Structures are given as structure tokens and as C-alpha cells.
């Protein structure tokens, strides 16, 4: 899973990126300090994997991962190539979802390219650039469909759908808010539009604002917008996250307790990402390796097996499955088997979050 961290220059993108990945992207108080996208791969926190590791003492423990891409700051005119616009838009296109960092604090010592703090204005600047880039893509799609319709009338409907979408975009609306049926939505999804990508707003607050974020006016503006859009929003303090990232696990736990929060920004961001994209994890366990695997909710057993190796899917016979709660209650896999809690599931089985599975296959 690849998430693109975006926002106007100097809103805290690279500070947040550094904190959650420890990848050391350059962070400075001026626009475009991040020229090329910085990429960091981070482990998905999963306490279930820790329990399995304690149970099996494997040679290797491998968590699921999320890839974060810190993308250079955008300015007005990016869709026309202003600033680093073309590179910015190309990098977003490669991501499954957008983490839009929005500045929600006042600080005269930190330059704001628009001269003041206004989260809705800042969100609007990026939205309109994505929408304008999408208009160009939609126009090309309409032209292509109209030409194809001369020999095959089925393309007339495609041209009509994208013409309606173009009008919607030209009114300043995102593609993800376009109201249409499932078939038309599936058709639009083939166009890889930027404003169609799901969004998580990371409301970046200072320490005082974060301590009482629900009463913060800037945060509430972003939260209200997210609610209307059906987007996710999480409050973060990039400065605090940077401090947390430097701590050892035990110190980190104490620090979070002192702040009155149970999870770091990374934990909350990953959970929001999973919810937004409809993702779950299944686990494999043994003396060689305990590992978490990420799949889309609704994935069937053979396709989940294919995440491990294509041969597993091609030669799938069955999946031996036990729930995490049943395994931990029994203490061992042998005890779970004795109690009949390990199920044999076939090709139609839909995987569940936390399933611990052994795939049987033959090729």
C-alpha cells in the first residue's frame, strides 16, 4: 500500500514523514526543500503478530508494511506546470490514497506561502489543481470515446458519462463526489483520476492545539469538511511525533500516557488508511517465520494465498484456518486442533481479519 503525503509548502509534510518513517527527509523552513519524493516503508503495528512471535519464537518476524511517499509541496498553477507541478501530479497518480497534511496552527516564525493560516483555503488550492488536471484527462477520454463510437455505438454512453463528469469537475467538484450508478462508477475508475483517490486529512496542530484538538477551530473546520466528503481525518502534532519517534518502546509508551493518548500518529494513520481502503490482515505462523499479510476485505482464500506465492493460488487445495482469538485461548495450535477449532476452508472462503492460515496446495 502506497500513500502519498501532500500539502502546501511548509505545512509539516516532511516533519511528519520523518517522524513516522525515521527516513530522514530534509526538512527546512522554505518551499520545495523536498525536491524528489522521499519514500519510507514502515511496519504496520499489529499486536497479534507480537503474540505469535512469543508463541513460536520464529527465526524471523515480518509485519505488513505501508509505503509513505513525501511529495514536494504544491503551489497554485501546478496543473499548468507551475512550481514542481508536473512532478507532483505524476507522483500522486502512483499512490493508492492521499494523506493531505493541513496546517492548523498559527506561528509567525513558520512561513506560510499564502501568508496566513486557513485550512479550507489550503485544501481548496490543492483540490482545484487536482481537479484541473483531471479535466484534461477527461477531455482526452471523451475525445477517444467519441472517435470509437463512430464504429461501435457502445462508446456513446462512455462519452456521455465523461461529459457529465467534465461538467461536474468544471464546477470545482472532485471526481470522488460525482453521483452515479455502480457501472458508471466502475467506468470512471478506469481513468485513474487524481481527485478520485480517497483522502485522509492529517490536521497538523501545535502542542497546545493538539492537547485539546476537539475545541480547536481550525481542526473542526477540517473535520466538518471530511464528514461532508466521507473522508478520514486524524489530528496530529508533527513536532510531537518527531519526539516520539526518537524514543525506545518503553519510553514511548510512558510519553504517550503522559499526553493522554494511547496511540502514536503512525498507529492512527495506518488504521485510518486501512479503513479508508478497506484493508485487513491475515497471518501465517511457524518456527521459520511469523508474518502479517495485507489484503482487501472480501478477498477469497485462493487469492489471499497468491499474496504469498503465485503457486499457492494456482495449485490451491484448501486453507486450514483458525481465528487469532481461538488460538490464543488454546495456547497452541495442537490444542486448537484437538478442540476442533481449526477449520478446513475451500476456494469460496472469504478471509477475515486476524485469520491465521496454512495453505495447502499442489503444483
Molecular structure report:
- By secondary structure, this protein is α/β, with parallel strands linked by helices.
- Helices cover 44% and strands 19% of the residues.
- It has 15 helices and twelve strands.
- The strands form three sheets. The chain has a six-stranded mixed beta sheet, sandwiched between helices.
**Strand line-up across the major sheet:** 2-4-1-5-6-7
Question: Quick one: biggest sheet?
Answer: 6 strands, mixed
Please estimate the helix content: 40-55%
Straight-line distance between termini: 29 Å
Query: How many β-strands, per DSSP?
Result: 12
Report the principal-axis shape.
Answer: flat
> Which value, in Å, is the CA radius of gyration?
23 Å
Class from helix and strand fractions: alpha/beta
Mean pLDDT across residues: 87
Strand % is 15-25%
| Uncertain segments | 28-35
Secondary-structure element sequence? EHEHEEHEHHHEHHEHHHEEHHEHHEE
Helical stretch tally: 15
Give a quick set of tags describing it:
363 residues; 3-stranded mixed β-sheet; flat; alpha/beta
Concise description?
With 363 residues, this protein is an alpha/beta fold. Helix content is 44%, strand content 19%. It is built from 15 helices and 12 strands.
Task: Please give the structural blueprint.
Layout lengths: L1 E5 L6 H9 L16 E6 L3 H10 L3 E3 L2 E6 L14 H9 L3 E7 L15 H31 L5 H16 L11 H8 L9 E6 L2 H5 L5 H13 L2 E5 L1 H8 L3 H11 L5 H13 L1 E6 L4 E8 L4 H8 L1 H5 L1 E8 H7 L2 H6 L4 E3 L9 E7 L2
Parallel strand pairs: 1-4, 1-5, 3-9, 5-6, 6-7
Antiparallel strand pairs: 2-4, 8-9, 10-11, 10-12
Amino acid at each position: 500500500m502506497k500513500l502519498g503525503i501532500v500539502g502546501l509548502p511548509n505545512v509539516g509534510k516532511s516533519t511528519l514523514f520523518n517522524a513516522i518513517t525515521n527516513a530522514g527527509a530534509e526538512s527546512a523552513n522554505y518551499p520545495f526543500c523536498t525536491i524528489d519524493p522521499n519514500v519510507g516503508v514502515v511496519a504496520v503495528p499489529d499486536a497479534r503478530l507480537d503474540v505469535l512471535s512469543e508463541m513460536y519464537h520464529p527465526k524471523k518476524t515480518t509485519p505488513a508494511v505501508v509505503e509513505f511517499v513525501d511529495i514536494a509541496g504544491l503551489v497554485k498553477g501546478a496543473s499548468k506546470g507551475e512550481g514542481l507541478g508536473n512532478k507532483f501530479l505524476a507522483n500522486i497518480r502512483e499512490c493508492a490514497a492521499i494523506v493531505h497534511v493541513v496546517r492548523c496552527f498559527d506561528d509567525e516564525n513558520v512561513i506560510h506561502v499564502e501568508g496566513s493560516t486557513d485550512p479550507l483555503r489550503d485544501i481548496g488550492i490543492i483540490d482545484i489543481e487536482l481537479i484541473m488536471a483531471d479535466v484534461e484527462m477527461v477531455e482526452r477520454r471523451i475525445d477517444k470515446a467519441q472517435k470509437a463510437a463512430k464504429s461501435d455505438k457502445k462508446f456513446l454512453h462512455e462519452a456521455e458519462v465523461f461529459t457529465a463528469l467534465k461538467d461536474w469537475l468544471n464546477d470545482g467538484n472532485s471526481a470522488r463526489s460525482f453521483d452515479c450508478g455502480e457501472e458508471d462508477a466502475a467506468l470512471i475508475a478506469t481513468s485513474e483520476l487524481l481527485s478520485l483517490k480517497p483522502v485522509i486529512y492529517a490536521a497538523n496542530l501545535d502542542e497546545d492545539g493538539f492537547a485539546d484538538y476537539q475545541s480547536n477551530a481550525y481542526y473542526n473546520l477540517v473535520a466538518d469538511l471530511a464528514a461532508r466528503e466521507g473522508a478520514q481525518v486524524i489530528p496530529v502534532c508533527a513536532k510531537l511525533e518527531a519526539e516520539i519517534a526518537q524514543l525506545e518502546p518503553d519510553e514511548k509508551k510512558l510519553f504517550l500516557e503522559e499526553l493522554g493518548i494511547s496511540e502514536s500518529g503512525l498507529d492512527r494513520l495506518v488504521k485510518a488508511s486501512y479503513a479508508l481502503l478497506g484493508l485487513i490482515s491475515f497471518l501465517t505462523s511457524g518456527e521459520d517465520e511469523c508474518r502479517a499479510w495485507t489484503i482487501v476485505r472480501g478477498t477469497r482464500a485462493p487469492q489471499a494465498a497468491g499474496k504469498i506465492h503465485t503457486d499457492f493460488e494456482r495449485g490451491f487445495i484448501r486453507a486450514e484456518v483458525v481465528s487469532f482469538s481461538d488460538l490464543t485461548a488454546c495456547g497452541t495450535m495442537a490444542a486448537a486442533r484437538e478442540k476442533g477449532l481449526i477449520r478446513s476452508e475451500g476456494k469460496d472462503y472469504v478471509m477475515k481479519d486476524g485469520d491465521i492460515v496454512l495453505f495447502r496446495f499442489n503444483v
